[in-house]
Amino acid sequence: MSSRSLPDGSGIARAGSKLLSMVGVSALCGVLVAGLLLPIASVLGITTRNLAEGFQNLPLALQESAIPQRTTVLDREGKPIAYFYKENRTDVRLSQVSAIMRRSMVAIEDSRFYDHGAIDVKGTIRALINNLANGATQGGSSITQQLIKMLLLEQAETAAERREATEQSFGRKWRELQYAMAYEQTHTKNEILRNYLNTAYFGDGAYGIDSAAHHYFSVDPSELSLPQSSLLAGLVKNPTQYDPTDYPEEATDRRNTVLGRMAELGIISDARARKVAGAPLALDLTRTSNGCVSTIASFFCDYVRRYLLEQEFLGGTRDERLRQLETGGLTITTTLDRDMQRVSDAAVREHVYATDRAIGALALVEPGTGEVRALAQSRPMGRDENFGQTYLNYTVPREFGDGRGFQAGSTFKAFVLATALRKGISPKTTITAPFSLTQPEGTYQNCDGLDTEEWKVESSTSTGTMDMYRGTRESVNTFYAQLEAFVGVCPSVTTARAMGIEVPTADENGPFTLGATSVSPLSMAAAYATFGSRGIYCEPHPVTEVLNAQGAVVGTVADDCKRVFRPLVADTVNDILRGVQEPGGFGYDIGDAGLEIDSAAKTGTIQNNAAVWYMGYTPDLVTAAMIAGANEKGQPITLNGQTVGGTLIASASGSGVAAPMWKSAMGTIQRWLPGNEFVEPDLDRFKGGDGTVPTVAGKSVDRAIELLRKAGYFPQVGYSVSSNYSAGTVAYTSPGAGTEAARGETVYIYPSTGYIPPPPEPDPEPGPGPNNPGPPDNPGGGDGDNPGG
Fold first, then answer.
1. Which stretches of 35-142 are DSSP H helices?
2. Taking Cα atoms as reference points, which of 337, 388, 402 lies closest to residue 363?
3. N or C: which end of the chain has fewer CB within 10 A?
4. Can you name the CATH fold of 688-751?
5. Which residue from 595, 593, 615 is spatially nearest to 604, judged by alpha carbons?
6. Residues 110-165: pLDDT tens digits?
7. H helices present in 650-766, as ranges
8. CATH number, span 68-86+293-408+517-686
9. For residues 390 and 305, what is the distance between their CA atoms, to the nearest angstrom?
């Protein structure tokens, strides 16, 4: 024998060791067949007592429900708009997986799956021989054992639990076997295979057979063919190594291995295996977006996500709710109207470019429900500021989008208007509005009853004596400053708050009516929806229902509505605001009546023209349109001198800048609305009964105003007149004291100058002159020598 054929001592020792191992395993084989667990326990050094205690300590069942699943967000018609997930997985029933896919997986991973229990004896023996000979801990795992390993890893929450679930040791194998034995007692083979297919990772971000089928081939798992199934079945062993998107050759070899095994088992013929093995992979990739960035409604999607993180039905803490969103396999039905969103996006992009030094936004809300139909803004979602991208959602309140909001300008006059009508003041009540007006300290009181400081207000529109129709149509500042003084700042603020507007205490002052408070387009849309719904305010919401992975209802978001004022008040506001879109109104620039259907609106422009608004609405939909000057960081700047949407703005206004964007969207959307009409108000109902004008002559003007307001009248201070009363006190009123007049009518106060000029002296008798010869010498007649008598 040559030295080449003679093993050395170490070689003999190794061979002997392997032989003894094989003998031991062969002996074990017989025992495994009769009673599997105890011999394995002996080999692993585990006593019978350890075994018994191990089973006692097992959980009653592993929780398949804890496996992360993909959450799907739907529009109001049930079409997907977004997905949230940590693992892109959606569970399906076994009947939803093609038969050839099921057979492919069983063939390559555990061909005797339906014949053995939790452990495949033959496979385990083969693995033990290799493991004992090579010191490895690989192979031999049944589908049940593999599933247990995946479940344990998925449910590991701590680093220690993850290490324990992946450690290469006999101890881990033994734990998995214990779990597998218990699992087989409570699940059928088909249930186990179903859970395995739903849990397995198929590479490239695809978890579970449903995601794998859609990701690699863009088909439902029920449509998987033999070529597709054999590829997917082969990926589970090593999803990274066989990833067909990165390693197509390795993936092809692995697929062909699966085909060969299927032919060997008689599942397919050799000829068919060879034919499929020679075919290309024919991938048809579909990437499933995760999150909101690439969706059709990015900022609406983000609003949905942040809104749900505040809903307690998803969990007791924010972390629990986030986990539900990302792993719970929820189905979320939203209020989004896909067509309205598309049209709104187009309107915003047309009028404000992403890189403009301005932000355009539209928010659409349905009156009577508060359902948010669409949200659009000019700056797209993302991180690249060079493309105007941002993650700030400017359309929603700060708690849902991190934007600070924008001052709303004269759109706030509607809150003062509604307050006046709530108090029964007739819209025909007239006020004399000068160009400028100084309201002294104490004219307004905040909600703590404290006087506010002096306020100088000017009107950039018109002057004169006018009622609420004209004062609103022309948006006259000095008219509303006086109307607000009569109804009170706090009642006006209270009205706005009841309509969902968050008004800081610092804004409880005279300028409230000119919209000094920063708000979001969504908040304003929801507030104005109170008018469209005839006095009912509904909290805006983007979600109607949430289902769990099993299809059970987790939570619903019912319409949260309350009546703020009676229908007559809303009907009258609507009637007044319709005038804004008619000739002479500030919204007339966008065309006669705004729309082909009944609509109303209010414009708004803030100081320095930093933001302009157009609050247009119908009985069926409110659309808040806002364009605000903003630099790259979103900080406010004036719109004047900016090029917005390709047009240089000399002087921005709500009617000239924001209204056209509103019309671009609503001009199309109006065709999808029911076309309901506003209810005509009965203005006679504002008379509120007759009263008597109190006597205020001789009192101070402030005291007179106080008494007239208490009596239900609207005091207006007129010009000073001469009277015996002290200067600065009231000389008289019109209508006068004691006159019967309807409450809510205007009573004019005329202060006294404190001075009555003396009566004029009589004219002196004229002296004789050429044109005045004087009396005749004899007025009685006769000749000149006889004086008259």
1. 37-43, 48-56, 99-109, 121-134
2. 337
3. N
4. Trypsin Inhibitor V; Chain A (3.30.10)
5. 615
6. 999 999 876 766 666 666 666 656 555 445 589 999 999 999 888 877 888 778 77
7. 659-669, 701-710
8. 3.40.710.10
9. 17
